[in-house]
Structure formats: structure tokens, C-alpha cells
Amino acid sequence: MPSSVPNTAAYFKVVNHGKAVKLVSVDTPVAKEAQLHTLLDDNGVIKMRQVKNFALGAHSTLTLKPSGDHIMILGLKKPLAVGSRVALTLNFSDGSSNTITLPVQKVSRTSEKQEHSDHSHHHH
């Protein structure tokens, strides 16, 4: 990844087998910070916005994807190599956390390398 691209995004699914909970933050050792983001339609213009949490209903699945809710990883400490793996710790409103590892993949629709996983990660 060129040094001019200090940010990337993470996409994955979180499956909640328990009571309703919120994903409130994400930590990763590969960047200065990770933020929860969504895309909004503002009079026909798609804009990215940071949000405070993502709600997971009881026994539901949260799908993070390029065209919707996702994790922005800001201030990468070094370039991410395609094929490497990145750890993310998901922090929930009930005080629990879950560390997952995602493969780094190149997303074909852009020239940026982004983390992406179609794997489900379970909470509770």
C-alpha cells in the first residue's frame, strides 16, 4: 500500500447468539485508531459518517460492508500486505470483548488494499 494511503476499512459479519448488545468500539495494534462508520444519503450525495455504536439485536447478524456500516482503520503504522492477517478487538456495550483476526485482501473495485472477510465472528 502506498504511504499516501494511511487508512483502510474492515468488513465482516458479527453473529449475536445472545441478548441485544451494541458494538461500541474497535481496537487494533496496526493503526492509531479504528472508528465505526456508516454511509448516509444526503440529498443524493453519499457521505461517510462516524457513529457511536452499531446495534446488534438479540439473535441477529451485523454485516459490515463497503456500501454500508464498516470499520475505518485510521493512521496505519505500516503498510498492510495482502495475505497478512490483522487483529481487531471488538468491544461491546455489555463490557465484553472479542478479538478476531481478518485476512488483508485487495478490493477489486478500488486501488486500495483493504481488510475484508466474509467469515462470521460470533458474540456470546
Automatic annotation (TrEMBL):
Q: Fetch the Pfam families from UniProt.
A: PCuAC (PF04314)
Instruction: Provide ranges: composition bias, Basic and acidic residues.
Output: 109-118
The segment annotated Disordered runs over 103-124
Q: What is this protein called?
A: Copper chaperone PCu(A)C
